[in-house]
Specification:
There is one protein chain. With 720 residues, the chain is α/β, with parallel strands linked by helices. It is 30% helix and 23% strand. A hairpin with a 4-residue loop joins strand 21 and strand 22. The longest helix has 14 residues. The two termini are 49 Å apart. The model has no long low-confidence stretch (mean pLDDT 92). The chain binds adenosine-5'-diphosphate and zinc ion.
């Protein structure tokens, strides 16, 4: 190719043309270095140049990286996702090459060994001692491995080398990625599991075949899709597993290791840059056969992709809300289609979208109806708080407290679920009634007693807890209102002083190490009462946990969110699913002030069919997803009047089209966020409408307005 179009990882345009010097050979997909103005950037050869600029005026490609090219199907995926989400292709590409140094030549690796003649008088600190001990076990160790093994920093190693205690040895290359072994430790399946595994495994590597693996919590969905991964391994195909919040999936990684002998490559935000570089490279060269990650792992280049698993496919965290707005579950289905990979969506509470896709014949339905080894589905009881209200300042009814006490006395464990971080969601002045709010958002400040600060959970603003009211100046008048998990822990400790309590929220469990420590503490019985937010709801398997209490089952039902009922249903079922997973039966107690609410009644009766039927009917009646299409347009600006006027002007410019309605503008529920005033429009259309084409046409009619920012969210999930 002599003239090429190169897509750069930038949020603008669709690529620039370059000339290829005669001594260089490039093909589509190659990573190349090109000039852009005064800068040099790395991009991807997207195809033939299509501009009409004369050869001599074209800038020249500077270099080609010695890295595996981005496959044809991956490039089509980038274009597809850009078109669907109405983003610049370069913004999408950027997500696929988020760690540019992975494209550079592999740096030589340093190893260390103990010095043959160490100085007699060197200072031996405990850290240095740990390094020496690690080096006794193995003669030469790669620097990174040694740091981990001895729990020391690179500076400690460098210091020891200077002191002559250890010697650096250049290593030819890093240790090869260890391959998972499909035959390492297979389980014996039940008849149902066997059938499910056979169906899914047979389709590995077949284009765009999608399965909804639908089984109650604890039915062995993970074991079943492990078998599909084993099949991919046997056929030398790569597997990609997306899980919500991988940083917290300590148990998942351990299970993978016991099934396949090694840990998979993991991709998540807690990795260091060096780790990210190594994982990216191993995945993009095809060396790493299995990668597990949060939603961003979906964008990793994988040359031999044969299987994509989306575990807990209903989970909200698969929706990316900033930058390129997309839903990783939906885009996994698209990627499977483009890459000849099969897709497994696993859940005990599938999204309504997925259920309807099964009905429409798009997804195959694979069902597991029973918990493994005869464990029973927990009994769910609704506790009517109108009759059982605890005294003022307390949130647990006497009945629930008694159940906790009985459970703990029997040597079992309990979990209290409350999806509210911190101590109290609201602080009020008892003297003037002022509610403490964030200066930059329309949101209350949440008290965190551990840190003695107030925090905005939307923008991260924090301030120390004041001791006088900022409005009326009254002293000691500020009072916490309502409970967060910290306050609940306080209540429990007062009522049950012998309970061994741990609070699990995103501010106490910050990463894989904390999560692993918590899992160990629960498994060893160091903790017998867990109090936590939604981070506790997912995936955990604690055999001795038999009681789950939901402190405020009504919490998710308030507000006008389209998916409020569905999400409450899913969340409460997930939480309930933590109880009684082994031989002892579990029970779940839901505290509610509206126990007649249909969603809560369906949960108590374990009536999934009824719930789904009712929810579908309601959505269908209003033409709402999955029976119609939605897009949200958020217009935001520093000045509320300007933003409102711009949103109104946009609404007036909306083209009339069949089966399309533009609703609004209206102030967004979160009307102020990070100092920006937000107004919202909602586009509602039937399935027959090309929503993206409509929006493009609409925006083309709107004059550019520098005072506002416009964000489009196709298939919005978050209605804030
Ligand atoms: P799910 O993903 O549906 O919640 P899991 O795969 O986590 O279910 O299974 C629940 C528990 O039962 C796990 O500890 C798992 O190892 C175990 N289990 C499931 N199926 C089998 C099997 N066929 N043989 C042995 N253990 C199994
Ligand atoms: Zn804020």
């Amino acid at each position: 190719m002599e003239r090429v179009k190169v897509l750069l990882p930038l949020p603008v345009g669709g690529g620039y043309d370059y000339r290829v010097p005669s001594e260089m050979a490039v093909s589509p997909g190659d990573f190349v270095r090109v000039p852009l103005g005064p800068r040099q950037l790395t991009g991807v050869v997207w195809g033939e140049a299509n501009g009409a600029i004369a050869d001599e005026k074209l800038k020249v490609v500077l270099a080609r990286h010695d890295a595996p090219p981005l496959s044809d199907s991956h490039r089509r995926f980038v274009d597809w996702l850009a078109g669907y989400s109405l983003s610049a292709p370069g913004s999408v590409l950027r997500m696929s090459m988020s760690i540019p140094e992975a494209l550079d030549p592999v740096p030589p690796v340093t190893g260390y060994r103990a010095a043959a003649f160490p100085p007699a008088k060197a200072r031996i600190t405990p850290q240095r001692q740990a390094v020496m001990e690690a080096l006794v076990r193995e003669k030469v160790i790669e620097a990174a491995t040694l740091r981990d093994a001895a729990g020391v920093s690179g500076a400690v190693l460098a210091g020891m080398a200077r002191a002559g205690l250890i010697e650096a040895v250049p290593l030819a290359r890093r240790q090869p990625w260890r391959q998972p072994d499909p035959a390492f430790a297979p389980v014996t399946f039940s008849a149902d599991q066997e059938q499910a595994a056979a169906l899914i495994s047979a389709a590995v590597g077949s284009s765009g075949k999608v399965f909804l693996l639908d089984g109650v919590t604890g039915s062995g969905k993970t074991e079943v899709y492990f078998e599909a991964i084993a099949e991919a391994l046997r056929r030398s195909l790569q597997s990609l597993v997306l899980v919500p919040e991988i940083a917290l999936s300590a148990q998942w990684l351990a299970r993978f290791e016991s099934r396949f002998g090694v840990r998979p490559a993991a991709w998540h935000s807690d990795l260091t840059r060096t780790q990210r570089r190594d994982v990216w490279r191993a995945v993009a060269t095809g060396e790493a056969a299995v990668v597990v990650g949060a939603r961003s792992a979906l964008m990793l280049p994988m040359p031999r992709l044969g299987l994509i698993v989306v575990d807990e496919e209903h989970d909200q965290s698969f929706k990316q809300e900033d930058g390129v707005i997309y839903h990783a579950r939906d885009m996994a289905v698209v990627r499977g289609m483009l890459e000849e990979a099969s897709v497994v969506l696993a859940s005990a509470t599938p999204a309504l979208e997925s259920v309807v896709n099964v009905e429409r014949g798009r997804y195959a339905h694979v069902v597991l109806t029973e918990r493994h080894a005869g464990a029973r589905i927990p009994r769910v009881k609704l506790l009517d708080m109108r009759a059982e209200a605890p005294p003022r300042g307390r949130w647990l009814s006497d009945k629930l407290v008694t159940e906790i006490a009985t459970t703990l006395a029997a040597g079992e464990q309990a979990m209290m679920y409350l999806n509210r971080r911190g101590y109290a969601p609201l602080t009020v002045c008892r003297s003037c009634g002022l509610r403490l709010t964030c200066p930059d958002c329309s949101a209350w400040l949440v008290e965190h007693r551990l840190t003695q600060r107030l925090e905005c959970h939307h923008c991260g603003f924090t301030q120390p807890l004041p001791n006088i009211c900022p409005d009326c100046g009254a002293e000691d008048s500020l009072a916490p209102c309502g409970p967060g998990v910290e306050r609940l822990a306080e209540e429990v400790t007062t009522l049950l002083p012998d309970a061994r309590v741990a609070v699990a929220a995103s501010d106490t469990i910050r990463g894989p190490a904390d999560a692993a420590a918590l899992v160990r503490d629960v498994q060893d019985g160091v903790v017998n009462l867990l109090i936590g937010t939604q981070i506790l709801a997912k995936g955990y398997h604690f055999p001795r946990l038999t009681l789950v209490g939901v402190v405020d089952a009504d919490l998710g039902l308030a507000g006008g969110d389209l998916r409020a009922a569905e999400q409450t249903w899913q969340m409460l079922n997930q939480v309930a699913g933590r109880a009684g997973r082994a031989d002892r039966p579990g029970q779940v107690i839901l505290q509610s002030w509206q126990p007649d609410h249909p969603v809560l009644r369906a949960i108590a009766a374990n009536d999934r069919e009824g719930f789904v039927a009712e929810e579908k009917a309601a959505r269908e009646a209003h033409g709402m997803p999955p029976y119609g299409r939605l897009a949200a347009v958020i217009v935001s600006g520093r000045h509320t009047d300007a933003a409102a006027a711009a949103a109104l002007a946009m609404a007036r410019n909306a083209p009339t089209a069949d089966d399309v309605t533009v609703l609004g503008p209206a102030p967004a529920p979160l009307a102020l966020l990070r100092g920006y005033h937000r107004h919202r429009l909602l586009v509602k259309a039937s399935h027959a409408v090309n929503l993206q084409a409509y929006i493009r046409q609409w925006f083309a009619r709107c004059p550019h307005n520098r005072q506002v920012r416009i964000k489009v969210d196709i298939d919005p999930y978050n209605f804030l």
